[in-house]
Amino acid sequence: MTLELTTAGESHGPALVAILTGLPAGLTLDREAIDADLRRRQEGYGRSPRQRIEQDRVELLAGLRHGRTLGTPLALVVRNRDHENWAWGMSPWPPEGDPHGKGTKPVTLPRPGHADLAGTQKYGHEDVRDALERASARQTAALVAAGAIAKAFLAELGISVAGAVVEAGDVDAARAERDTVGGVVEARADGVPPGFGSYAARDQRLDARLAAALMGIQAVKGVEIGDGFALARLRGSQAHDEIGPDLRRTSNRAGGIEGGVSNGEEIVARAAMKPLPTLMRPLASVDLATGKPAQAHVERSDVSAVDALAVVAEAVVAFELARCAREKFGGDAMVDVVAAHRSYVERIGWSGR
Ligand code: EPS
């Protein structure tokens, strides 16, 4: 049994879409809890005026009846309210009506640090917008909705996940100088029993899976688990977490993962975000229409999205842990998953953190 997520949607298109397969039947979902996470993602400091237009809310189209999962594919939508301002420029079909709206003029000035140039080269686009719309971090709203569902599933197994900012650039100063900043966030997961992930194959390692999940978020350039890079500078005698008589650790430098397997301690994963690449004082680029040097495209954007990243990191870590739980405990009905989890933790004598 495996949990999978497919998303679709352009930043200024009609909507973001997500399909989740592999959830058990009988999981109770709370619409308000999903919407609360969508709101948390939008509220971060340093966001663009776009966030005053969007009021993200989840709509469930399939897989749910009266608030309980059916064990069938779950389909959800988060609409882009801004789409009505881009109705011509981002029309899925050849557009009709006023041809002077937003997004009608082709973008030919790729922004350094964005997917603009490589995206147009790779897909043969002439308008950079054809690449930037999907590369946009708007897509993270769909990840957060899926993450909220994953958190509801994990809560049934006594697992919780929380994201937080651990380091952030000075947004006020950057805004005044029409610049952008990045930062570092972390996601911590409590209640994960020993045995999620496996050393048996590199793509089954929990640390590799969490790193891929976090790196899959726009603008993330670095990931560490536990003390991560700092461990490289320590002696082995200082770096490892000793095992007490109760099989618990006296420290958690490994961030809850050894040999690619969870060890029962808190999972700690950090992600570093680069400063956002859409700059109000643009960097040097080339006009793809003329081949001549030019300044990069300027378009409304965020000064920082680090607060939002903390919420997204929480979501993707929750989703990956939910996938591990589906693989480990199986079950078509939520009661069977809970029973399999209970039987496993009893066998290994793990009583939780
Ligand atoms: C983004 C640019 C901005 C952000 C957007 C991500 O959008 P716009 O160009 O419409 O102002 O606000 O993020 C969201 C819309 C969101 O909901 O997170 C980008 O280029 O990645």
Annotate the secondary structure layout.
Elements: E1 4-8, E2 15-21, E3 25-28, H1 31-43, H2 50-53, E4 58-62, E5 64-65, E6 68-70, E7 74-79, H3 116-123, H4 129-135, H5 140-155, E8 160-168, H6 171-176, E9 183-190, H7 206-215, E10 220-225, H8 228-231, H9 236-239, E11 257-258, E12 261-262, E13 267-273, E14 284-286, E15 293-295, H10 306-329, H11 334-347
Antiparallel strand pairs: 1-2, 2-7, 3-6, 4-7, 5-6, 8-9, 9-13, 10-13, 11-12, 14-15
Helix pairs in contact: 1-5, 1-10, 3-4, 5-10, 7-10
This protein binds ligand EPS.
Ligand EPS binds near residues 11, 48, 141 and 302.
Which terms summarize this structure?
single chain; 353 residues; alpha+beta; 11 helices
Summarize the structure.
The protein is an alpha+beta fold and 353 residues long.
Characterise this structure.
The protein is of the alpha+beta class. It has eleven helices and 15 strands. The chain has helices spanning 31-43, 50-53, 116-123, 129-135, 140-155, 171-176, 206-215, 228-231, 236-239, 306-329, 334-347, and strands spanning 4-8, 15-21, 25-28, 58-62, 64-65, 68-70, 74-79, 160-168, 183-190, 220-225, 257-258, 261-262, 267-273, 284-286, 293-295. The strands form five sheets. The chain has a four-stranded antiparallel beta sheet. The protein has a four-stranded antiparallel beta sheet with strand order 8-9-13-10. Strands 3-6-5 form a three-stranded antiparallel beta sheet, with no helix packed on it. Strand 5 (64-65) and strand 6 (68-70) form a beta hairpin. The radius of gyration is 22 Å and the shape is globular. The mean pLDDT is 96. The chain binds ligand EPS. The site of ligand EPS has 15 residues, from helix 5. Ligand EPS binds next to helix 5.
